[in-house]
Design goal:
This protein is an alpha/beta fold. It has 13 helices and 8 strands. It has helices at residues 2-11, 20-31, 38-49, 55-70, 74-79, 81-91, 100-108, 112-124, 129-137, 145-157, 163-186, 194-199, 233-251, and strands at 17-18, 191-193, 208-216, 219-227, 254-258, 262-263, 276-279, 288-289. A hairpin with a 2-residue loop joins strand 3 and strand 4.
Length: 298
């Protein structure tokens, strides 16, 4: 009996739609977290403090909060770049490991990759971001072997930025776009994808645009946008300004799916009144009504 209870608890669906109280608690935990890296904060949230919440929702909220927190730090880091490089070079000979930069990043409360970027810019007098990114992506090209080893360790320890993190996010985004198309085909939806629409001359394009609109709970749907993300009100408003408004203007009403969940206020924002429906999953088949194209044909 105990084993069945444990299995049932383990398989229970994680919470995707968060109340304002729940969302605020998560953000307060993130912003009050000290003494470790963002990846440590992620592990604490997922495994100890918010175990009933969808882990990918927590990761997305962490990413958003860290971005806002560190957005204004870049210029301050650049002002201290000489001092940071001096500190690294004075201490690197005292430690026989590759974790010095990680410890420095933790003490400075900054991203390990951000610290690497500043040190590489300063040490090698790099002015172009592409040159810095090349060294981050290929640490073996760094002339100083100990610094190269430290940078490589930072790549594995930073869940907020860097080539590996960019790759992971891109793969997850593509995975959920494929999921969207697969589910649409399974229920019999005919659609154009982004490549089809670009060939037709459209610049801003949703992930799928219906060839024939359908009804979802009595609302017309002309397009669906897939977001492998969490839809908090701020990021959702940004998505409306940058993408969704143009879709509504050009194609009419549509759906945005936040696969990892959303804040309870997001679907009810006045900004959605232009024709945006917010969901956390593909619409249930029983809620869809399709045009009967063969009706009346003998």
């Amino acid at each position: 009996m105990a084993k069945n209870t444990i299995a049932s608890s383990h398989n229970a669906a994680k919470k995707k739609i968060l109340t304002n109280v729940e969302y605020t608690r998560i953000c307060q935990f993130i912003n009050g977290y000290h003494g470790g890296l963002a990846i440590d904060c992620e592990l604490e949230m997922v495994n100890r403090f918010f175990v009933d919440v969808e882990p990918l929702a927590l990761i997305c909220i962490l990413q958003s909060e860290m971005f806002n927190k560190h957005r204004g730090q870049h210029w301050r880091l650049e002002q201290r770049s000489k001092k940071l490089l001096q500190t690294y070079e004075e201490q690197c000979h005292l430690y026989n490991d590759n974790a010095l930069l990680i410890r420095m990043a933790s003490l400075e409360n900054i991203s390990p990759i951000a610290l690497c970027r500043i040190l590489l810019q300063e040490k090698y007098d790099l002015t172009q971001r592409s040159h810095v990114y090349r060294l981050l992506k290929h640490p073996h090209l760094i002339q100083d072997p100990r610094l190269a080893a430290n940078v490589q360790q930072c790549l594995y320890s930073d869940n907020q930025e860097g080539p590996l993190t960019d790759l992971r996010r891109r793969i997850i985004g593509e995975e959920y776009e494929v999921k969207l198309k697969t589910l649409a085909k399974e229920v019999g939806i005919h659609f154009y994808d982004e490549q089809d629409l670009r060939r037709m001359g459209y610049d801003k394009t949703p992930d799928i645009k219906m060839i024939f609109p359908f009804l979802y709970k009595d609302s017309v749907v002309n397009w669906i946008e897939s977001k492998a993300n969490f839809g908090d009100p701020r990021s959702h408003k940004k998505n409306i300004q940058q993408q969704l408004q143009s879709y509504c203007n050009r194609f009419g009403p549509g759906i945005i799916i936040y696969w990892f969940g959303y804040h309870e206020d997001t679907p009810n924002l006045a900004d959605n009144n232009i024709g945006i429906t917010v969901l956390t999953d593909f619409p249930a088949r029983e809620d869809l009504v399709f045009m009967q194209l063969t009706e009346g044909v003998k």
